[in-house]
Amino acid sequence: MTDDKHAKRAARDLAAREGISYTAARRRLAAGAGDVDQEPRPPVVVPTTSTPCPEGCEGSGHPGTACWTWRPADATTGVRWEVRRAAELPGGRADQVMRRDEEARENTSSRWARLHAWETKWLLALVYAMLTDQRPELLPDRARLRAAVEADDLAAVDAAMEPLDRAAARLMTKVPAVWWGEVKPRIDAYAHVVENDVRELSTWQEIDARHVVGRLVDQWRRTWEPTVRNASGLLEAPGVLWVAVKGWLDALLVDRHGGHAPGARVRLGDGRPALVYAVEWGEEGPPVAYRVRELEPGRHGNAGRLVPCLTSDVLAPAAGCQEYAPAAED
Ligand SMILES: [Zn+2]
Question: Which of 19, 42, 196, 330 lies 20 to 30 Å (CA to CA) from residue 243?
Fold first, then answer.
C-alpha cells in the first residue's frame, strides 16, 4: 500500500526531526498536528461537465461541476481527422503542415529526405509552443476555431491560425547565420525557461499542455547532445533538419496568399532565371521578397541545362520576380 508507506516514512522523518518516538510521530500525524508542509492535501473529487461548455461559460449553468473547456479533440463527429488535427496546437498542426507539403512533393523528393522531414516535425511543434507562450495574442480565438472545426472547414481553421503560421514563417529561416546566431539561441532560452517553470497549474488541461511542451524540450535537448542513438540504434551526429520547417511554412502561406513556393523557377528583373529557395514574409499579405539561387542558362542561346549556383543565395524583392515561362526561351 503506497499510502501506508508514505505515512510510515513521514512518521519516521518527523520522529527523527523532532526527537520523539515513532509511535508519537504516527499519532501526531494522524491527529493532523504534523508538519503541515509535509501533509499531502487530500484529493477532492470535482465532477466535470459531460460536454464541452459554451464559450464564455462562467460555470453558473452547472453548479457543482467544473467547466470543460472545448478542445479540437472534442469534435469527434462529422469532422475530418485532418481538420481536427490542423486545429490542435502544437503537435497536431505541426504534423498537418508538414504532411501537406511533404505529401505534395511525394514524387520529387527522395524518400530518405522525407524520412528526415518526418522526424523533424517536432521542431515545428516546439516553435508553435514557444511563439504562443511568448505571444499569447497569436493563439487563435477559441470561439472562431471551434466554429471552424465543427463546420469541418479546413480553410477557416487555417485562417484562424494565420497569425501564428506567419510568425513561425518569419522566425524560421534557411540562412545558417540566422539560424545559429538568432533562432537557435532563442529556442535554447525558451527551453531553459520551460525547464525552470514553477508556475502553479490549476487545470488538468494546463497539466497536459505542460507535459507536451516538456517532451518537446526534452527532444530539443537530446538533439544537441554530442551523439544520439536513433530508432535503429545507430549513433547519429547532433542536429536537426531545421531548414525543412521553413520550407513547410513557406509552402503553406504561398498556398494561401499566392507567390512562388520554394523550388519554383522565377525570372529576375534583369532576365536571369533563378530558383526560389525561401520566402520572406511581411506583417500580412503575399511574400515581400524571395531568397533565390541563380541558375546558369545554356551557352548557345537555348535554355540548356540550368545548374543552380549552390554557394549562396540572393535576396530579391517580390516585385522583381516573374514567373518563369519556358516558352519565352525558344
Ligand atoms: Zn462551464
Answer: 196
| pTM attached to this predicted model | 0.77
Whether residues 12 and 107 share a domain: the answer is no
pLDDT in tens, 217-238: 999 998 888 776 767 777 767 7
The verdict on residue 50 lying in a domain is no
**Structural domain that includes position 264:** 258-329
List C-alpha distances in Å: 128 to 121, 138, 266. Answer: 11, 10, 31
Instruction: Please tell me the distance between residue 89's alpha carbon and the centre of ligand 1 in angstroms.
Output: 22
In the reported structure, the alpha carbon of residue 310 is separated from the centroid of ligand 1 by a whole-number distance in angstroms of 57
**Chain segment 60-69, per-residue pLDDT in tens:** 888 878 888 8
Distance 49 CA to ligand 1 centre (A): 7
Q: What is the DSSP string of 189-208?
A: HHHHHHHT--PPP-SHHHHH
The structural domain count of the chain equals 3
Does residue 181 sit in the same domain as residue 296? no
Read off the DSSP letter of residue 269: T
Ligand 1 centroid–CA 77 distance in Å is 21
